[in-house]
């Protein structure tokens, strides 16, 4: 047999390459493409099969023919790879397009959990005082008359008791078990159970015989502060109130003390907060702890002195959020609860 | 307490801007609640006398008033108010007047009747808040006079002060002026009344006896003659009117005026109605009756004080209200004018018991100056003299027990130590002396039990009008008050503590956050219940009762958070807001044997629109998120919950909570149409007393093996029982255990049984478990489950 002419082999390789490329162009999917690979580039493929015929060429023709054959295979391989990329990209495009979503189609999400506005306000207050080195004390809501009044320098029949419309509960004899009218009995319990120096706040519920309306409720929340230390002065009280005012309300707010009267503090004061617009907000009562109260609670009034303050939490929440009616705090309407 | 600037100026020459005066008063502790500058009435408003009142022929809401404006002509005015009587003086807006509102007064006809002008209320004139009727002017004004000129209050300033209970002295113009003068460094003087006496000595017309010296510290009487026909001087009437007190008659008006001016109430008796003018004071007999000025017969008890006549008949209630039988009238010739000092506690008790409070009783309760009564009586006489009233010589009085006037030992160093000031003794004196406190160097050695301070030691005398002041701290407060709190430099005490919450408080906050994180909203129901609320929840009615509630709905303290949250669910459901998920962490109260009732923090969750498993699942999530003591869920009927869908939470042998679903009968009683999954627990009992940080266990690097086991279990056996057995049998290599399938098939599994399947993941920290090890664990689990009655489903 006569050796193949290199030209014939080249012509055949060219034809097979063209056919293979046509096949590659014709397939429509990655699956078809990979299925076609053995026939185009596999060992048994016609193009690869031409290698076997190289041996039939004159030795001097073999390198040229071999190179041509390799180039043909490389051309098909490259085209295959390119085609694979194309088809994969097309398929990815199709898939992604098919998965197109309208992200503005929203079902109502489950409701968010919320803490009650009073809980949030109370925490904010606690956090301010904790940062000032105070701890948080608690006491019973149902109290003895002694803790609520007697120990706080309200003797029985004292007209100042009339300032509080007290609710009493039936806890058997002796009578005089009551719903605490202020958080101040916690002061008494703290002084009785701990030794100075004391820096505490006592938030909690208080009760008064009041008809519910936009500004009154028979139950409300107060926070009380008590500091007992060496050499505490009225100036310290004013400074502590000012520090609290700035920390809680923000810069631009300032405070003042005005003389007032509470049986358990002397000197006593009301404290007001001035807003940046110059208007005043009456916030609460405060004063230097009365020596009689210290003594009754087992604190040497010559050795220690202290101050106490107290104010309403509900009112602060109402002011901060623009709540006009106190009763709204207690309705538990989710349209109220979900706003905070 | 209302004061007028012009009245204050009678005691001290205070001047300057009204706002500046108001600021000083507030800074002295006399908070100015309201400040009113009296405007002039518009030109054209004149004083007119009501000469006649006639019904309108065609309208019953209008009457015809014949007014006399002093020009001899009667003008008919149609008026919609009915509070005036013939003879009253009223403001008349004459035709052509422009009212403050801009309204022009013209001649008009109302339902056919001519109206020449308009009668005005105080509000229409912007001279006061009263819009309920025509302003009745004080007698003594001249008809036809310009109203502003006649009243003489234009430009005057009214300060409405909030007076604290420790400042009875400030319940008078005098007391307010004293403070203001001291603050401003102005002279202040108590003027001596200028009054001449005449006629027979008072002792011939009256006598006084105190039979209850603890009740009555002083009882002073002066005798006034020629009282009939006297009229209240116009200036006094104007001031009373400006302060909102309607002039009534000469004696009452003067008594009120003197009380407002110096704080001493007084009372007048018609001498002709008191046999021999003999007055006595004693405690009432139990059940004794007296008819008071208001015509009501009051029954007294042995704690009340009475004023009696010579026959021992009660003719008045001490310090609270006079008696009807001795009331003065326009014909009274001789007045026994009495001013007394009553024990404040007694007056407080009586006025509260009888529900009778007056300006006078309020002052007696707060504590009147025990030395001022004679002065008050003379002042009354001075004011009455221009009306022809004469004062008999002699003050007739008796004395009981007056409050002691202690001398107070004051350390000037202590003053600075409490106030945080560095005042000199002279500066302190300058605060105290102008308000009547007397300062002198202390006599004798200071008591050794008191700390000594650098500075001086004083004996301070307290003025009679300051019954609140009796100790060193009281005097210190006065120094601070007069020096001004606003001048005290502010210091911030440095806490030696780090501050912060206790572990328990942090855990409670965490519970709030976890529940909110689960999508629940925190509710805040009222802690009060109505009678029957607990029963409606299926709970025992053992709530502590409030003995004096204003409304029955607030008469029981809650023993459970259930009624409150169910009401909240119902409230929302009634507003088309079903399916609410609410929680509360709050105090509950229960009767107890101790000094106080039991009180603890409970946690409760209501999931409306959900059934019991939702509560069980929520509990499981909560339990994992919280540092709770180990608990066990036990299926059992719970009062008020769905009896076959409820469980208790048990810890340490005691019940600490419950969960399940609200009994359908209970939801029905609360008008709730939905199912309500329910969880309730005692947070106090659940929280670990100790918060140990969990120890970290690194995840194993070795492969894990999963074992799935399905068992057929009797319905009576809780899944938790089998699960516990599996957990114990699997031992240390168990890293997780999940129940993943439950099904029932009576045909294949039998009735009252179900198949429950668990997946156990096994993994050792230090090696790959061999097939043999996994097989052994599987076998041990099957055996352990079998011991609970669970049969492996092959």
Word description of this protein:
The complex is a heterodimer of chains A (340) and B (794). In chain A, 41% of the residues lie in helices and 20% in strands. By secondary structure, chain A is of the alpha+beta class. Chain A has two domains: 5-98; 117-337, BirA Bifunctional Protein, domain 2, CATH 3.30.930.10. In chain A, helix 2 (30-41) packs antiparallel against helix 4 and helix 5 crosses helix 10 (313-321). The longest helix of chain A is centred in the first third of the chain and has 37 residues, at 62-98. The mean pLDDT of chain A is 92. Chain B is an alpha+beta fold and 794 residues long. Chain B is built from 21 helices and 38 strands. In chain B, the strands form ten sheets. Chain B has a seven-stranded mixed sheet, with helices on both faces. Chain B has a five-stranded antiparallel sheet with strand order 5-4-3-6-9. Chain B has a five-stranded mixed sheet with strand order 11-14-17-18-19. The longest helix of chain B has 17 residues, at 771-787. Chains A and B meet through helix 5, strand 1, strand 2, strand 3 and strand 6 of A and helix 7, helix 10, helix 12, helix 13 and strand 26 of B.
Structural class of chain A: alpha+beta
Distance linking N and C termini of chain B: 92 Å
Taking pLDDT < 50 over at least 5 consecutive residues as the criterion, the unreliable ranges of chain B are none
Q: Architecture of the largest domain in chain A in CATH?
A: 2-Layer Sandwich
Q: Total helix count of chain A? A: 12
CATH class of the largest domain in chain A: Alpha Beta
User: Beta-sheet strand percentage of chain A?
Assistant: 15-25%
The shape of chain A is rod-shaped
Classify the fold: give the CATH topology of the largest domain in chain A.
BirA Bifunctional Protein, domain 2
Number of helices of chain B: 21
Biggest sheet strand order of chain B reads 26-29-30-34-33-32-31
- Please give the most extensive interface between any two protein chains, plus how many residues each contributes: A-B, 83 and 92 residues
H/E topology pattern of chain A:
HHHHHEEHEEHEEHEEEHEHHH
The whole-number mean of residue pLDDT values of chain A reads 92
Number of strands of chain A: 10
User: How many domains of chain A, as an integer?
Assistant: 2
């Amino acid at each position: 047999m006569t050796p193949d002419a290199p030209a014939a082999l080249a012509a055949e390789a060219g034809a097979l390459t063209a056919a293979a490329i046509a096949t590659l162009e014709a397939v429509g999917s990655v699956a078809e493409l990979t299925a076609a690979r053995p026939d185009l580039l596999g060992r048994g493929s016609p193009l690869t099969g031409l290698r076997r015929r190289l041996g039939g060429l004159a030795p001097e023709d073999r390198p040229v023919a071999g190179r041509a054959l390799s180039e043909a295979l490389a051309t098909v391989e490259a085209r295959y790879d390119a085609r694979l990329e194309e088809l994969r990209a097309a398929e990815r495009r199709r898939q992604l397009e098919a998965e197109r979503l309208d992200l503005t189609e929203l079902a109502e999400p489950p409701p968010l959990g919320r803490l009650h506005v009073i809980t949030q306000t109370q925490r904010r207050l606690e956090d301010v005082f904790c940062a000032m080195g105070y701890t948080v004390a608690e006491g019973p809501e149902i109290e003895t008359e002694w803790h609520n009044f007697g120990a706080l320098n309200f003797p029985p029949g004292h007209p100042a008791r009339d300032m509080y419309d007290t609710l009493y509960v039936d806890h058997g004899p002796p009578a005089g078990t009551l719903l605490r009218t202020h958080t101040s009995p916690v002061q008494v319990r703290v002084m009785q159970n701990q030794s100075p120096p004391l820096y505490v706040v006592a938030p909690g519920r208080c009760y008064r015989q009041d008809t519910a309306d936009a500004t009154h409720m028979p139950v409300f929340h107060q926070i009380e502060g008590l500091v007992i230390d060496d050499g505490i002065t009225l100036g310290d009280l004013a400074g502590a109130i000012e520090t609290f005012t700035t920390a809680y309300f923000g810069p631009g707010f300032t405070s003042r003390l005005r003389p007032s009267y509470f049986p358990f503090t002397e000197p006593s004061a009301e404290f007001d907060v001035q807003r940046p617009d110059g208007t005043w907000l009456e916030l609460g009562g405060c004063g230097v702890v009365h020596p009689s109260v210290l003594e009754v609670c087992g604190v040497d009034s010559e050795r220690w002195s202290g101050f106490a303050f107290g104010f309403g939490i509900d009112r602060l929440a109402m002011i901060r959020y623009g709540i006009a009616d106190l009763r709204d705090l207690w309705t538990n309407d989710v349209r109220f609860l979900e706003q905070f | 307490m209302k004061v007028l600037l012009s009245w204050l100026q009678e005691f001290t020459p205070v001047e300057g801007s009204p706002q500046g005066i108001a600021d000083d008063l507030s800074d002295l502790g006399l908070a100015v609640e309201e400040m009113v500058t009296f405007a002039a009435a518009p030109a054209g408003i004149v004083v007119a006398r009501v000469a006649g009142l006639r019904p309108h022929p065609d309208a019953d809401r209008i009457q015809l008033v014949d007014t006399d404006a002093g020009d001899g002509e009667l003008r008919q005015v149609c008026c919609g108010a009915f509070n005036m009587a013939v003879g009253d003086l009223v403001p008349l807006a004459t035709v052509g007047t422009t009212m403050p509102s801009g309204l022009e007064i013209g001649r008009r006809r109302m339902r056919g009747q001519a109206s020449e002008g308009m009668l005005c209320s105080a509000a229409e004139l912007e001279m006061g808040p009263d819009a309920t009727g025509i302003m009745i002017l004080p007698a003594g004004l001249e008809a036809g006079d310009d109203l502003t000129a006649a009243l003489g209050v234009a430009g005057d300033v009214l300060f409405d002060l909030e007076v604290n209970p420790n400042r009875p002295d400030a319940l008078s113009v005098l007391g307010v002026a004293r403070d203001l003068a001291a603050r401003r460094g102005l002279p202040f003087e108590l003027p001596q009344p200028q009054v001449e006496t005449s006629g027979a000595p008072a002792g011939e017309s009256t006598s006084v006896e105190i039979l209850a010296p603890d009740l009555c510290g002083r009882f002073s009487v002066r005798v006034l003659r020629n009282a009939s026909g006297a009229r209240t001087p116009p200036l006094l009437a104007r001031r009373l009117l400006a302060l909102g007190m309607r002039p009534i008659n000469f004696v009452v008006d003067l008594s009120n005026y003197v009380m407002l001016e110096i704080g001493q109430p007084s009372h007048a008796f018609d001498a002709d109605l008191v046999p021999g003018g003999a007055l006595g004071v004693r405690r009432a007999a139990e059940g004794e009756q007296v008819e008071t000025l208001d015509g009501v017969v009051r029954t007294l008890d042995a704690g009340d004080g009475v004023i009696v006549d010579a026959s021992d008949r009660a003719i008045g209630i001490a310090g609270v209200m006079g008696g009807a039988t001795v009331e003065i009238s326009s014909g009274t010739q001789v007045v026994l004018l009495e001013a007394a000092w009553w024990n404040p506690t007694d007056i407080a008790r009586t006025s509260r018991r009888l529900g009778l409070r007056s300006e006078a009783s309020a002052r007696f309760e707060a504590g009147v100056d025990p030395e001022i009564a004679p002065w008050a009586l003379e002042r009354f006489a001075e004011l009455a003299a221009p009306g022809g009233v004469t004062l008999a010589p002699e003050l007739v009085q008796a004395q009981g027990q007056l409050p002691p006037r202690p001398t107070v030992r004051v350390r000037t160093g202590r003053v600075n130590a409490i106030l945080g000031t560095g005042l000199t003794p002279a500066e302190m004196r300058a605060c105290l002396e102008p308000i009547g406190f007397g300062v002198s160097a202390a006599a004798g050695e200071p008591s050794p039990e008191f700390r000594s301070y650098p500075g001086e030691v004083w004996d301070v005398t307290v003025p009679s009008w300051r019954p609140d002041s009796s100790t060193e701290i009281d005097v210190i407060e006065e120094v601070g008050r007069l020096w001004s709190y606003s001048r005290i430099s502010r210091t911030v005490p440095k806490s030696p503590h780090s501050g912060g919450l206790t572990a328990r408080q942090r855990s409670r906050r965490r519970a709030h956050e976890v529940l909110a994180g689960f999508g629940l909203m925190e509710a805040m129901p009222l802690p009060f219940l109505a009678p029957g609320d607990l029963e409606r929840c299926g709970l025992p009615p053992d709530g502590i009762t409030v003995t004096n509630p204003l409304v029955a709905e607030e008469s029981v303290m809650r023993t459970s958070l259930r009624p409150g949250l169910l009401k909240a669910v119902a409230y929302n459901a009634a507003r088309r807001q079903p399916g609410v998920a609410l929680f509360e962490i709050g105090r509950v109260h229960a009767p107890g044997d101790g000094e106080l009732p039991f009180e603890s923090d409970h946690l409760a969750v209501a999931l409306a629109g959900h059934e019991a498993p939702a509560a069980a699942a929520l509990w499981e999530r909560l339990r994992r998120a919280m540092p709770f003591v180990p608990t066990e869920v036990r299926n059992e009927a719970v009062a008020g919950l769905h009896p076959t869908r409820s469980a208790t939470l048990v810890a340490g042998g005691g019940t600490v909570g419950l969960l399940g679903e609200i009994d359908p009968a209970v939801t029905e009683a609360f008008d709730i149409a939905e199912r309500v999954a329910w969880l309730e627990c005692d947070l106090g009992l659940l929280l670990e007393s100790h918060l140990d940080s969990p120890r970290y266990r690194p995840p194993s690097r070795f492969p894990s093996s999963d074992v799935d086991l399905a068992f057929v279990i009797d319905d009576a056996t809780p899944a938790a029982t089998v699960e516990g057995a599996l957990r114990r049998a699997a031992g240390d290599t168990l890293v997780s255990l999940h129940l993943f399938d439950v099904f029932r098939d009576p045909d294949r599994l039998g009735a009252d049984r179900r198949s429950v399947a668990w997946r156990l993941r096994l993994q050792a920290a230090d090696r790959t478990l061999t097939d043999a090890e996994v097989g052994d664990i599987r076998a041990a689990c099957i055996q352990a489950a079998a011991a609970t009655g669970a049969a492996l489903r092959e």
